[in-house]
């Protein structure tokens, strides 16, 4: 009887541990820094230079740090769920709405955001669609994106190396 109870408890603990490990999503969580040698930057525009990610279950917490050509940094924190629900924040007086989902087929993360700002007195909406992929067994994160504004569409790929 004791051996049967032990096996049952051991099996239960093993199952709980396995589910806990799956919920942590180790491929994305961590601190990432832009690889400036691999990434082609677009002129003097702001670019993502650092990204801190925490994925736990269906929760995605990020701290994005953007940088300009002069080295000035602009960080902001965004807390999302991976169920496609819209989340709204304001970044430096600019409203932003973001939806995030996880691909069932390859585990990649997809983010769709709209950020509203004013340029020359005109309201402008910047739409960005991103696909994040963590390379298995490597400390590399690729972010493929397409940014759309009234004056056109701008695709690109960012390569980030794991720092921690």
Task: Outline the biggest β-sheet.
Answer: 10 strands, antiparallel
Task: Supply the helix-strand structural class.
Answer: mainly beta
Low-confidence runs (pLDDT<50, min 5 residues)? 10-26
In helices, the fraction of residues equals 10-25%
The number of helical elements comes to 1
First and last CA, distance: 47 Å
| Strand order across the largest sheet | 4-3-2-1-10-9-8-7-6-5
Look at the structure and give the mean pLDDT.
86
Order of helices and strands: HEEEEEEEEEE
Shape: globular
Our Rg estimate from Cα atoms comes to 19 Å
Strand content: over 45%
Quantity of strands, as a count: 10
How would you sum up this structure, described in words?
- The chain is mainly beta and 164 residues long.
- Helices cover 14% and strands 56% of the residues.
- It has a ten-stranded antiparallel β-sheet with strand order 4-3-2-1-10-9-8-7-6-5, with no helix packed on it.
- The longest helix is centred in the N-terminal third of the chain and has 23 residues, at 2-24.
């Amino acid at each position: 009887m004791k051996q049967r109870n032990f096996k049952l408890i051991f099996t239960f603990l093993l199952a709980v541990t396995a589910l806990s490990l799956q919920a942590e999503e180790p491929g994305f969580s961590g601190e990432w820094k832009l690889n400036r040698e691999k990434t082609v930057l677009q002129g003097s525009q702001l670019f993502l230079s650092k990204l801190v990610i925490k994925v736990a279950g269906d929760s995605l917490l990020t701290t994005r740090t953007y940088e300009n050509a002069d080295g000035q940094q602009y960080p902001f924190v965004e807390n999302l769920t991976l169920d496609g629900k819209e989340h709204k924040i304001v970044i430096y007086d600019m409203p932003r709405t973001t939806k995030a989902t996880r691909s069932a087929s390859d585990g990649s993360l997809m983010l769709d955001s709209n950020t509203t700002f004013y340029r020359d007195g005109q309201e402008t909406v910047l739409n960005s669609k991103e696909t994040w992929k963590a390379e298995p067994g490597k400390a590399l994160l690729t972010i493929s994106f397409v940014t759309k504004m009234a004056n056109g569409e701008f695709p690109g790929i960012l390569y980030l190396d794991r720092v921690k």
